[in-house]
Design a protein that fits this description.
globular; mainly alpha; 0% strand; 428 residues; 18 helices; 73% helix
């Protein structure tokens, strides 16, 4: 019994460690795994991304420890049938698709997400256990904010000047030139919008950490609240400097969902909604301005072309799609002449329709955001901590209409570990 308890504790620590490392070192989109290179020196190991092979190796070890720590009942949870069905459909779509190698990369990611959800739902039962993973999010957010602020206050310009002096570094990588020539920061991620997608979830997770029950003195609790406020403000600054308008809109939409579901009296809620909308519009006008509106228009035009192509691909492969991650191979045949190339649709739901057909789309929606809808419909009492985790999931679901967070380990895996906590009540 003592051994099983130790293994359960090691499993929680493993979940926390990978949740900390994921947004810092494993934020490359799954369809770019063929471009990965191993760091060659100590400095590169500290500042560069790591190959996802390391993440999967670490997670495989963690999963084996987790299986050994589970009771026989926990190894056969009924609440995992739907996630297992989702992965099963993705496997069938990969076998029936047009690009098996890419599909297998995507499949590995989705399998790790579902298994991480299982481990989170099994081992993050209490607030005492979940605080380790919340702390990992907080520490990762500190590094993300520090790197983002560094980029915004001169680091991006230094990188730009360095590449101008050594153009051979970016030879054959036009995306790198495009990123450094823009003033949009991306911190530890490869894409400003991916940074925005992480931030809008991290803000809610930091709030969850702030709402944890006290285990120390009043002074310590006050220090924790102050730290949460400072980190939150730093992340909001990074969100602004990232220029991710979709992330900002998703954050506002999540606030509206919170008001609609948490406070159900219209007399008190309607003024709050109006104030929130007016405040959001004012902040957007001041923070982004007319130039951002024009950039947003061009971005929307590009995305509309991606989405139209995804719809057509799905209609041409209606049952199991063209295979997970295969959109990039088919998009040149469907895109308009003036549209730029892309490897993902920038929309999770249309990506599922294109890649795995109607069956894949339905099982995806049933799994996520289905787990959130199921949680919101419960009549049982919900803690502030659970509300914050659920809001992080809602923000992710909204942002998934405009980007590909689900296809990056650093964005999707740590969140689904925490979403597993929302399933705890179903098992007890």
């Amino acid at each position: 019994m003592a051994m099983r308890e130790r293994l359960r504790f090691y499993s929680v620590l493993g979940l926390a460690l990978l949740s900390f490392l994921a947004p810092l070192k494993f934020s490359l989109p799954v369809v770019f795994y063929n471009l990965q290179i191993w760091p060659s020196g100590l400095m590169e190991w500290l500042i560069a991304m790591w190959p996802e092979t390391l993440f999967y190796a670490g997670f495989a070890l963690l999963f084996m420890i987790g299986i050994a720590a589970m009771t026989p009942q926990e190894r056969r949870p009924r609440w995992m049938l739907l996630p297992a069905l989702f992965v099963g459909v993705q496997l069938l779509a990969a076998l029936a698709g047009i690009d098996l190698q890419t599909s297998l990369h995507v499949l590995f990611l989705m399998l790790s997400v579902v298994l991480g959800f299982w481990l989170g739902g099994t081992f993050l039962r209490s607030e005492r256990e979940i605080r380790w993973v919340l702390l990992a999010w907080v520490l990762a957010s500190v590094f993300v904010a520090w790197k983002g602020i560094s980029d915004a206050t001169g680091g991006l310009e230094e990188t730009r000047q360095y590449l101008q002096m050594h153009p051979e570094i970016a030879t054959g990588n036009p995306e790198l030139w495009h990123k450094v020539q823009s003033n949009r920061i991306f911190s530890t991620f490869v894409y400003p919008n991916a940074l925005g997608g992480f931030i809008i979830c991290a803000l809610w997770i930091i709030a969850a950490w702030m709402f944890l029950p006290s285990e120390g003195t009043k002074e310590f609790d006050m220090l924790r609240r102050v730290a949460a406020g400072v980190i939150g403000m730093a992340l909001l600054y990074c969100l602004w400097k990232s220029g991710s308008k979709g992330s900002y809109a998703s954050l506002v939409a999540t606030g509206m969902v919170l008001l609609l579901t948490r406070f159900r009296r219209w007399k008190g809620m309607l003024p709050s909604l109006i104030v929130l909308l007016l405040l959001a519009m004012g902040i957007f006008a001041v923070g982004y301005g007319r130039v951002a509106v024009e950039m947003g228009r061009r971005t929307l035009e590009a995305r509309l072309d991606y989405w139209q192509a995804a719809l057509k691909i799905g209609w041409d492969h209606p049952f199991l799609g063209s295979g997970p991650g295969a959109f990039a191979k088919l998009y040149p045949q469907y895109k308009s002449a003036a549209a730029e190339s892309t490897r993902l649709t920038h929309n999770l739901y249309l990506q599922m329709w294109s890649d795995s057909g109607l069956i894949g789309l339905l099982t995806c929606i049933a799994f996520f955001p289905g787990i959130l809808i199921q949680w919101f419909r419960r009549e049982k009492s919900k803690s502030a901590l659970q509300w914050c985790i659920a809001c992080a999931g809602v923000a992710f679901a909204f942002h998934s209409f405009m980007d590909f967070d689900f296809y990056m380990v650093g964005n999707v895996w740590p969140l689904f570990v925490l979403l597993g906590h929302l399933r705890v009540d179903d098992k007890e």
